[in-house]
Every structure is written in C-alpha cells, then in structure tokens.
Please model this.
Amino acid sequence: MPYSTIVSAETLKQHIDDPHWIVFDCRFALDDTERGRRDYQQSHISGAYYAHLDEDLSAPRRQDTGRHPLPGIEQFSAWLAGHGVGDHEQVVAYDDVGGAFAARLWWMLRWLGHTAAAVLDGGWQRWTDDGYPANSDVRPSTRRAFTPRPDRSRWLDINELVDAMNTDAVVVIDARAATRFAGDVEPVDPVAGHIPGSKNLYHMTNLGEDRRFQSAETLRTRFTALFPGHDAGAVVHSCGSGVSACHNLLAMEIAGLSGSKLYPGSWSEWITDPERPIAMGRD
Model:
C-alpha cells in the first residue's frame, strides 16, 4: 500500500534497501542556501539523494514572481526520472525543520499525479535519534520513466486568486509565523504584512513537541475553525514563497480535509505589484 501523506521512521527503515523506495533529503536554509547541501554531504539517510530548493524544486525567480516559482513540468519530471522515480516508486522526503521543505517536494509530486509520496514524520532528527543508518555515500541512481500527469486544479495563479477573493469563493490560510503575518517583523521579503482577508496558522504548530504531526482529529479541529461555512476545497494556502504553505496543505490531507489548493507565488509575489493591497496586524 503506498504512503501518501506521512511515513514513520520505523516504516522507512524497513524499506531502506528497497530499490523502489526513493528517499530525498530536502534540508535547506533561507539564510544560507548551501547549508543543506553541506549537511547532506556530511551525513544523510542511507541511499538518499539531495533535493535543493532553489535548484531542483523551483524555477529561477523573475521580477514578477515570488521567490520560489514552480519549475517547468518537463524539467522537474526529468530530474525525478534521473533519480530513479518512475510511475510506481514510493517517494519519501525529509528535512530537519519539521517537514517544511520536504512538504514542497511532496506537494509537487502530487501536482504531477504521483500520489505515492510521503514526508518522513519527525524528519532527520527522528531518524538519527532512533539510530537508523546514515552515511555520506551517494548511491548511483537508476533512471526510470516518469510520466507527469499535471493537475492544474491543485494551485492558483495570482489572477485566479484575486478573482476568487473578490467573490469570497476562497479562504486564504497563511503559514508564516504570527509576527511575520502581522507585519511586526519581515526578515526575508522587502515588504511586511499579509494578503487582506487571509487567516494565519503557523505551519510549525501542526507538530507536537516530538516534531511529529499532531493527530488527524487535532489537525481537523484547528483547520476547520478557520473556514466555517466553506469546505476544504475553498482553502488556498500561502506563505512567503509557496514552500511552508505546503506543510499546511499536508496537515489538512492528514486530517482528511482533501482538496485545498496552493498559491505558489505567495507573499513574495503578491508584493511585486505596489497596487495590491496590504494588511497589517493579527486580525
């Protein structure tokens, strides 16, 4: 049975030598974009390949886009195929920040129709705390045929988002920390604040003290409180650049709230046009 949301360290350990389980290390840091690669080169889950947020999981930024635009379908599909991902492989992604970067890869696979994709619950810390195998070896990859089946309904571009907001057809949930959402601080983007009318649910609050996802029931209660009168399909997830928003989307899937969408451009694209309105504060 394929895993389509999260997978435990114990389960991954049982399949670590299975050639049809492909593992990606997604460690990354916005303030040091090579730190994740250095950490990977030093030690990673045995057999894992490295996925760089800027180089592999994003297209180059343009003046009118957010910081991490979606890559081209052909380019990303070729990258997956070159790392052994075919149509029937189980993919597992992990990082060391609770799954924020790993969830980006998880969502991108689902966008292209590959549902056998999961995030390692508890991430790198859980794996090493449990004493499972890690090394610095890079396993040779076996190219497989990957067939992309992109589902355009999984995300909204800026124009679609604005149109939907104008008719109250969507509820935007912002995954950034409360201080960034409120505009109290902005360590990454040149303008502080949030999309008017959006709700805030910091993605790290999806996790318990052990860095693993909270129960489906707990997550369901937290999220449904943000969109009364709407179903999950009306929810659009945003953040700074379309990365940690995927963590909230994953949490909703764990909760059984399927059908929400991603706004990949997120705040960093919203502010490229000075005519777009900006809201401040927590309300």
Notes: Residues 70 and 122 are 26 Å apart (CA to CA).
